[in-house]
Amino acid sequence: MTKQADVVVIGGGITGTAVLHELAKYNLRAVLLEREPELAAGTTKANSAILHAGFDAPAGSMKARMNVEGNAMYHELKDQLDLDIRWSGSFVAAVDDEQMAVLQDLKKRGEENGVPGLEIWDGAKVHEKEPNLSKDVKGALWAPTAGICWPFGMACAFAENAVINGAEVLRECEVKHIIVENGAVKAVETNQGTIETKYVINAAGVHADEISKLAGDDSFTIHPRKGEYILFDKTAQKDLVYTPIFPTPTKMGKGILVCPTTHGNVFVGPDAQDMDDDCKEDTAVTIPGMDEILSKSRHLVPNIPVGATITEFAGVRAVSSTGDFILGPSQMTKGLIQAAGIQSPGLTSAPAIAKYLVDPIVKATGASWKQDYKPGRPAQPCFRTMAAADQNALIAKDSRYGRVICRCETITEGEIVDAIHRPVGARTVDGVKRRTRAGMGRCQGGFCGPRVTQILSRELHIPITEVRKEMCNSYMFYNKETKSGGKA
Ligand SMILES: Cc1cc2nc3c(=O)[nH]c(=O)nc-3n(C[C@H](O)[C@H](O)[C@H](O)COP(=O)(O)OP(=O)(O)OC[C@H]3O[C@@H](n4cnc5c(N)ncnc54)[C@H](O)[C@@H]3O)c2cc1C
User: Fold this and answer.
1) Which of 44, 260, 278, 488 could in theory staple to 469 by disulfide, Cβ–Cβ 3.0 to 4.6 A?
2) Given this model, what pLDDT does residue 396 score?
């Protein structure tokens, strides 16, 4: 297969999908390539899910600028794309005078970065809002513009909107090579054929340095830094904290936090482990990692409900050799646009990064705004939050909404079928989980997993042995003929 595109985006994480969403507003043929069956298969699926206010990054850095702009843009995008965001605010807590002085520095830096509403609260005021905080907390920096979000859902929303506006998403499409002629990008070679294009946007996360090298630009490297987490069941620790609670930051990052999710759980983490450069996909959790995050999070919130743990997970930060986001045209290869080194606050920054990268392409190509651009996406039914009358009406229209598949989270067959057939629909068990929450509750899919597998097989018209958990080769069952599968 050979096809043509004006712009090829490599990577279907939050950065690539936000870029595609921005490109789809214009009369440009835009294609996103993601090597896994699902979007957000990399760092976007495993992080702290905070829309940061923007006081952490040094003034004048791209991180600071994109963070503050991105945070503001999400306020509008939340309604437009029905994003799962709660504007919770956040605290950085201090336990001694030295840390109280750090809060003053953070506030000053935040004000330089343009973060609105920062305040330093005394211990009594902080405890009024967060009664489960340690009595050692003397004060905190309050950032009212911070929020918590559901990153996978946001990446899907960006992609769905782009697709309904004519952009294309090719999944299981791995970039193998980039053809450069006379110093300019000519085409992208993938396992699904060649795409001729003049612009490539490199949003390949921890692999962005490898993609850049394929196009002849070896000016930076990406180093993996892992962060582990523990997630708690929502019934056991309801109201433990209402907002993300950070410790005062260190050189390695923002520190180990205690944080609510938009779905009512609480998690603790992440630590920061520098990994070997060949460990970019290492998301294993470790006993030392668990010990560290539990002991450090207890300094802030003593009664961490460790007995209510439902899962542990890890994400890998893409730390660039420059220390900042690497954004914009490559100095070595014409047409190669970098979105590399997108570590935290990458989620928050994504819409601002997208605009920063797409505006010059629009200008250079003279592409016009799509007159029939649609700003939203199809509504996604959420049975458990509906009023009883609406639930009954939905069941009367489609009886599959009357069959609960995931009992922990009350997710119906109707919602799972909708998730599979949406514009960039679920192809795997975890794709269903992350779009609907089926399998995200206390039993972690122990009961609903087999039923979700059956529904995927039926709706995608594939044998049950072809249903995968998440990644390309993660078949749910052992296939005797191909001698593969059976492990996630
Ligand atoms: C522990 C941790 C905590 C964090 N907390 C926060 C937070 O609270 N707030 C915040 O704003 N940010 C946070 N971040 C940062 C944020 O998660 C990242 O900046 C963001 O998810 C990066 O998204 P991305 O799209 O650039 O990369 P990814 O999500 O990694 O996407 C890259 C994609 O490229 C694909 N790909 C790679 N190679 C190829 C190829 N050859 N062909 C095709 N596709 C390819 C991958 O499969 C992947 O899906 C955190 C990160 C970590 C690790």
Assistant:
1) 488
2) 97
